Amino acid sequence: MLHRLAQPSVATPVPLARGHSRFRLRVCLKGSGVRPYGWEVYDEEDGRSVRQSSERFRTSAEVWEAGTAVLDSQE
Q: To the nearest 5 percent, what fractions of the chain are helix, strand and coil?
């Protein structure tokens, strides 16, 4: 009996603003310890960071939710 190994998922940046947007949300490993993750909004055209979280999070899912909320509140 062969067992299939799960394929690693690859996260692709997704536009979060309605319509065409050049800004993307990225989850980043910012350090170590209990809360190593943060988020960053970057400009897809030139790659520069335009905003970063000051808070750190336990999981990448928490970061994604927080970063998405920030972008939604600016619309």
A: 20, 25, 55
What radius of gyration, in Å, describes the C-alpha atoms of the chain? 15
Look-up of token digits 């055209």: 45
pLDDT tens track for 32-69: 999 999 999 888 889 899 899 999 999 999 999 999 98
Q: Which of these, 40, 19, 15, 17, lies nearest to 28 by C-alpha position?
A: 40
Give the whole-angstrom CA distance, residue 70 versus residue 50: 13
For the sheet with 23-29, list strands across it.
23-29, 37-43, 49-52
What is the residue extent of each domain of the chain?
23-73
Residue 69: what pLDDT? Answer: 87
Token digits of residue 56:
């750190």
